[in-house]
Amino acid sequence: MRRVEQNGLCYYQFESWPDIKQGIFTRSGGVSAAPWDSLNMGGNVGDEPAAVRENHERMYGALGLNGGRVCTVWQVHSADTVIANGPVRGRRWLALADGMVTDRPDTPLTMRFADCTPLLFYDPVRGVIGIAHAGWRGTVQGVGANTVRTMMQAYGCKPADIRAGIGPSIGPASYQVGEEVVAAVQAYFGTTDGLIRRDPADGSAYLNLWEANRRDLQRVGVEQIEIAGLCTAERTDEFFSHRAEKGRTGRFGAVLSL
Question: Band of the pLDDT at 252, cuts 50, 70, 90?
């Protein structure tokens, strides 16, 4: 990924997508006080609403996006994906879901993260974008694959044309999980090889969300996949991490627009 610094803000962009506006923002350059310092995008974590609104405006301004046309969802750790044609009047979110797609110009899609995986999608042939939120629950329900299928069904996208980006999230060395997660990975992927690592000292399990989502996207035919390889739990200087900061933290934003 390419790292960009602008007016005190810092964000990352997928390098193979030069012709759309996109960014995964760090926690820097906002107005929120600790422990949400400073570019917190989460409106339900205890931060001041006015600060969160200002942070959003700064994010949209950095990319020259129309904040009045932004679409988002109420994230619920599902595989549900919705089509975004524009904001819903009188409500800040479109639906309870964890994926969005659109072919509408000037219709930014945004979500919030703090260890879960941002998945961004772009089909330059059909002119379609998408975004998904993939924690372990979403991953083993196939939220990434379902976002691709929605692009195919709604807009006629071909998986081989779709570019996918797997953004910063908790990495395989930091994401210790319970046996219920191991069982869910086995059930969805048919194996845990390359997805679950066991600590040789105590047998505890660690999940590789990056590889799991890469594999999920490959199974539906996506070939162009860029992985950020940035661990949020190891990089709390740049990203919010629910795990590393014991739940007392903010949410960083990801946004893209045609």
Answer: very high
Burial 4-17 (b: 16+ CB within 10 A, else e): eeeeebbbbbbeeb
Amino acid at 243: R
Q: What is the third-level CATH fold of 2-171+217-257?
A: CNF1/YfiH-like putative cysteine hydrolases (3.60.140)
Cα 126 vs. chain centroid, distance in angstroms? 22
pTM for the model = 0.97
pLDDT in tens, 218-236: 999 999 999 999 999 999 9
Q: Measured between alpha carbons, how far is 52 from 34 in angstroms, rounded to an integer?
A: 13
Domain ranges of the chain: 2-171+217-257
Neighbouring residues of 181: CB distance < 8 A, sequence distance ≥ 6: 136, 140, 205, 207
Written as one letter, the residue type at 150 is T
